[in-house]
Amino acid sequence: MSVNFYPPLDLKVITPKLELRGATDALLTQLLPIVREGVAERQPDPFDDPMSLYDDNPVRERKWLQAIWRGRGTVRPDAWRLYFVVMLGEEAVGMQDLIGVNFDTFRTVTSFSWLAPGARQQGLGREMRAAILHLAFEGFGAAQASSEAFFDNVASNRVSEALGYQANGHDWATRRGEPAVLNRWRLTRDVWALDRRSNIELVGVEACKPVLFIQ
């Protein structure tokens, strides 16, 4: 039975290591202490501008929540964003987003994620990306997924490589106002299917599709 009035908040992606749950306000509240302490306090800076996680408290917490609330309410056939809280058992340790980009025309998605400092270097970054790709390709019928990471964001670039993404050129972006090179990555449905996992469970997909205008 649904516990929310908005189907995307009932979405779940379950793997042997972790669970992605639709980011309800209750789950976001669990993440607030992590956001308060900071998830981007080590060099090199991982995120491009604008980024609320770079702001000082309490502005950081307010802007972070406001961005998620705005994103929930901005849903069009060509553009939408789903927010998930990464759960280890009942502990919230990060976020994983799936973003539809011209989805009605090209079936393309991208993703965004972060982990609490204490949850890093445990293979969770790769597992949560694999989970969100399974939702995109298996659940929503995506044709292609893209990813971007700064050239010195070793962990993110390694995850993309390990999951079969192919290098797709470079771009520029700023972080804290300073320019830096972005590596671009591309994963097609056919390549994803070569190593498609059979141990990832999707919950609530069909109820979510009409909200996202997915046929």
TrEMBL record:
It holds the Pfam family Acetyltransf_3. InterPro entries: Acyl_CoA_acyltransferase, GNAT_dom. One of its GO terms (molecular function) is acyltransferase activity, transferring groups other than amino-acyl groups. SUPFAM superfamilies: Acyl-CoA N-acyltransferases (Nat). Keywords: Transferase. Residues 18-188 form the N-acetyltransferase domain. It comes from the Bacteria. This is RimJ/RimL family protein N-acetyltransferase. It comes from Deinococcus humi. The lineage of its organism: Bacteria, Thermotogati, Deinococcota, Deinococci, Deinococcales.
